[in-house]
Amino acid sequence: MSWSGGGPINTVRSAADEAPFQVRLADGPEPGQLVASVSGELDAASNPLLQQTLLTALRRAERLLTIDLSGVTFFGSAGVTALVWVSQHPEAAGKHVGVIATSRIVTGPLELTGLLPRLDVQGMPGVSAGSPGDPEQARR
Predict the structure, then answer these.
(1) How does pLDDT run across 51-107, given as a tens digit for each residue?
(2) Rg over CA atoms, the chain
(3) Measured at the alpha carbon of residue 41, what is the angle toward residues 35 and 104, in degrees to the nearest 5?
(4) Domains along the sequence of the chain with CATH
C-alpha cells in the first residue's frame, strides 16, 4: 500500500503483490463532500485495503461520501462486501454514502445480489435521469 499526495487530494495504490487498484480521494463539488474515485480490480486480495481506504474516506467526509466506481475493471464479491460494509459502518451515521456506477461490471453484481435498490447508485447504464437507485424508480 502506498499513499501519495498533498493538499486536498490523496491517492492509495495497492502493492505490487496485490490486486491492481487505486483510490483517489478529493474534495467534491458539494460542501462537505469527499469523492473516492476507485479504479482497477476489486477482488478478495484488494478487500482489506479497500475497506481501510473507504473507512479513511468516510472519516474525512463531513456529510457526504461519494464512491465513484466508474474506473473499476473487475468487481467481485469483495467489492460488493466493501460497499455494504462502508455504507452500514457506525461512522456513516449522520452521513450519506453514494455510489457512482457507470458500467454493468459494477451494477450487474449489485443487481444480482439484490443490493442495487438498497444503495444510492447514480450514473447507471441504461437508466433515465432521476433516482436510479430508488426502488420506486425501478418499478416504473
Answers:
(1) 999 999 999 999 999 999 999 999 999 999 999 999 999 999 999 999 999 999 999
(2) 14
(3) 80
(4) 10-127 (3.30.750.24)
